[in-house]
Amino acid sequence: MSNNRVSRRQFLSYTLTGVGGFMAAGMLMPMVRFALDPVLQKHEGGDFVLTEQKIADITEAPIKVDFTFEQVDAWYKADVTNTAWVYKDGDVIVALSPVCKHLGCMVDWEHKDGNKNEFFCPCHAGRYTKNGGNIAGTPPLGPLDEFEVQEKDGYLMIGPSKPNTLV
Amino acid sequence: MYFNAKDITEFMAQKEFIDTAIVPLVSVDLSNEKMKQSGAEADFLIALTAFIEQQFKGRLLVMPLFSYSTVMKNEEMPKQLEIQLHNAGFKHVFFITCDRFWTNIEELINVIWLPAIPLESMDKGVKNSILEDQLRQVIPIFSTKWSQN
Lengths: 167, 149
Prior knowledge:
- The complex is a heterodimer.
- Chain A folds into 2 domains: about 40 residues; about 110 residues, 3-layer Sandwich (Rieske Iron-sulfur Protein), CATH 2.102.10.
- Chain A has 1 helix and 9 strands; from the N terminus they run H-E-E-E-E-E-E-E-E-E.
- In chain A, strand 3 and strand 4 form a beta hairpin.
- The radius of gyration of chain A is 29 Å and the shape is elongated.
- In chain B, strands 1, 2, 3, 4 and 5 form a 5-stranded parallel sheet that branches.
- In chain B, helix 2 crosses helix 4.
- The radius of gyration of chain B is 15 Å and the shape is globular.
- Chains A and B meet through loops of A and helix 4 of B.
């Protein structure tokens, strides 16, 4: 027998503290996790997507650039491909959303039924200027949305859309 | 637009602009040899109509798949459906299908027949470019109809 004997009283109080500690931790841990959850949440949707478009190849004439990102709808994940009309305005790169502000068709640059130097919506003949401004007298009620753009290693990155700032 | 609650609400509000209905007709063949082909056709039609919808969202309503088994196939069905869609205010009704049978009544209804391309083994990029090619074939059919009035 060693000198520091554990009395019955001590043994019971150690065990109770231990067990009680675990129980308290079991209750507190989820609470703490829930409290912190909003801070730890990932911010989706605001990310930039890398495209295969070289910055150097972008000219004054708008071209279609596809970009694909993952969209999560509840438990359903899907790769969504979006398109942007991209051109250079001086040194600034402009990326416009192709979605018509009337009812959501895809607009086309210099469409065969449309005018030169304009975007044209084949659904209801909506017209937009090169910077996305809607031309009065045609169905669209607002200018085309704009995408934020970034550059990475010479390639174009497309970010979230924002209301048109060019018109 | 699709036949769902959200799009139909918008459709109701903008009825005068959405004058075209697209009806995919899918044969559900349950015989051992044809079942897979039938599935590929359904795949292809869903992918293609989704692509068409994306391009012309504001002008057309893509109806849910109208499917029928081989014994239920009936020439009256699309004709009746077309009448009802016209009554509902659609000026143009297109039936899009991979089933050759419907080309028999081509003079009576607008049938767009396309051979099913098996998309299941393709990667995304190839799939997209194939659908784009198919779309390019379909667009003139729409634009001629649309420009007739």
